[in-house]
Amino acid sequence: MTIGSTVAGKSRQKDEGGEAITGAITDVGGIKVGHFTDQRRPTGCTVVLAEEGAVGGVDVRGAAPGTRETDLLNPVNTVEQVHAVVLSGGSAFGLETATGVARYLEEKGIGFDVGVARVPIVTAAILFDLMIGDARIRPDAEAGYRACRAATAKPPAEGNAGAGAGATVGKLFGFDRAMKGGIGTASVRAGGFTVGAIVAVNATGDVLDPRTGDVIAGARTKDGKALLDTRRAILRGELSASPRTGARPGSSTTIGVVATDASLTKTQTSKVAQMTHDGLARAVSSAHTPLDGDTIFALATGKSGKGASVLLIGSLAAEALAAAIVRAVRAAKGLPGLPAAADLQRRR
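Predicted structure:
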């Protein structure tokens, strides 16, 4: 098995022997990714296009989600395939980006055929990044359209790009002790299948390296110079010392997409989305909190031409997502008052 990650179009991936190989969600046949980044705040959105259609699934586990068309992805409902998934900053305002994506797809004649028109099936999820800069600046329909125009099958940029532009992590003890989050991508190949992930990491909790358990980015100590380690702080009773946390409800959220070239049913794809949350929980502590709207979409393009074990694909998806989360914070660049993981490493 190989796990890969990509930084700003330059691919790096290491397997168990340390050999460099390429890796990104765009390694999955039928998938394109485009970012729109608004540097004025910053904020942005990211679109994952499946222009030929892909069987879709979703699993929402955070208690503060902001989503579009997730009910459509329920296996009991009629439509089987989606054409795009949008990840966006801007809180609930950012759901407007999906309108621009739908306009782009309609112009290309892509959508669900209802006889009198083709209706693009566009699902979406948002994260809260309004604490950075002017909250009146947020991704809109034009941002979604421009992200589509930028979409390619090349490895997408990571860090402060698209939906990760304004992302932050480690907010449980207050925003003034948080760090910069971002967007990351990774891919896994095994059993003749490819599974890729892209994720915007805006978690309330810390980001960990699943291989070592070490905290990479998250809440800082009161002097801001070191990592607090939220998990240990909670065990010491520091969180329960006050009935209210430093973070606001709904002020976080990790949102992502996993895709595979396997042929899966809608029920199987939904199960893959569910299993993928294992990767989120390995790399984020705490995950699925009352303050986060953690949401994972799954897409199956079928480009491999063969079916697959859901156990295999779901396991690979969890690995890809965990790797992408780590990449997101390691590729991030600090903003004023919000150091990145690399900034704290240099201080050691």
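Summary: Residues 2-22 have pLDDT under 50 and may be disordered.
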